[in-house]
Amino acid sequence: MTPTLLAGARVYLTEVDPGTGPLAGNVGLHVGDDPALVRRRREALAHLIGRDVVWMDQTHSTRVEALARVEGAPRLAGASSSLEAPAPGEWGPVRADGIVIDARGWVGAPGLAVQTADCLPVVLAADAGRVVAAVHAGRRGLLGGILTRAVDAIRELADGPIDALIGPAICGSCYEVPVQMVRESEAVVPGIGAVTSWGTPSLDLPRAAAALLADAGVCVEIDPRCTLEDGDLFSYRADPACGRQALIIVPA
Questions:
Q1: What is the pLDDT of residues 144-196, one digit of tens each?
Q2: Strand partners, 112
């Protein structure tokens, strides 16, 4: 797993492991996998990237939490105690769909993970990669404004440019939805509507997210892979029994 750089921060993406079954390589605890296996995968991931990882309990909300430090451990901003550490290399879960951490002056600050299997995983970085965020932006979260909330949370901490990477998600040519859902979504985020490759109504979440972030003054990169089309990635549309991959950002 080779990292990419985003404004000085390292970004990693887990993928489906070779093998049989829909959960090979899964890092999600909520999909019916053996928790002990998931914990071992998460611990191995933390060892690989050289940092502990903060995980979220994602609920398709628009909630964004800021993390700070207490005695070298992550805590919710305003809290007096650190997050739970349920297993080696693991913190959380934070009940939110977005987390932001200020790692300036924090040697060994943890990485942040967002889990997906068709929804948008988005990571953001500012101040040379020392202030970073991870966001789960499904259809509901995207329409509810979670990306704007994450950008605002970063700007409360750091001045200057913000860079974002939109990870692999289901593409507009594959994300078929009812026509009424397209109309309702267009009323909130103009331009989100699209057409599948077979000619039916769809939503293009990556394109809409990129436009929203660009309008907010963020420099955006998109990983063009479609989770439904790429066999190396989990896709709920392809198999509702599938696992989850994680996009992880590690502050500089």
A1: 999 999 999 999 999 999 999 999 999 999 999 999 999 999 999 999 999 99
A2: 54, 249
Amino acid sitting at position 225: R
**What is the crossing angle of helices 146-155 and 205-215, to 10°?**
30
Q: What is the dihedral sign for C-alpha 198, 200, 204, 207?
A: positive
CATH of 4-169+220-250, one of 3.40.605.10, 3.40.50.300, 3.30.360.10, 3.60.140.10: 3.60.140.10
Q: Say what the pLDDT of residue 138 is.
A: 94
> In angstroms, rounded to a whole number, what is the distance separating the alpha carbons of residues 194 and 172?
6
Cα separation values, 150 from 40, 96, 156, 212, Å: 30, 11, 10, 12
Bridge-partner residues for 246, per DSSP? Answer: 115
pLDDT tens digit sequence for 85-111? 999 999 999 999 999 999 999 999 999
DSSP 17-44: PSSSSTTTT---SSSS--HHHHHHHHHH
Query: DSSP readout, 83-151?
Result: PP--BTTEEEEESSSEEEEE-TT-TTPPEEEEEESSSEEEEEEETTTTEEEEEEE-HHHHHHTHHHHHH
pLDDT band at 20 (very low <50, low <70, confident <90, very high): low
Report d(CA 48, CA 10) in Å as an integer.
Answer: 12
The answer to whether the CB of 67 falls within 8 A of the CB of 54 is yes
Question: What is d(CA 16, CA 23) in angstroms, rounded to the nearest whole number?
Answer: 8
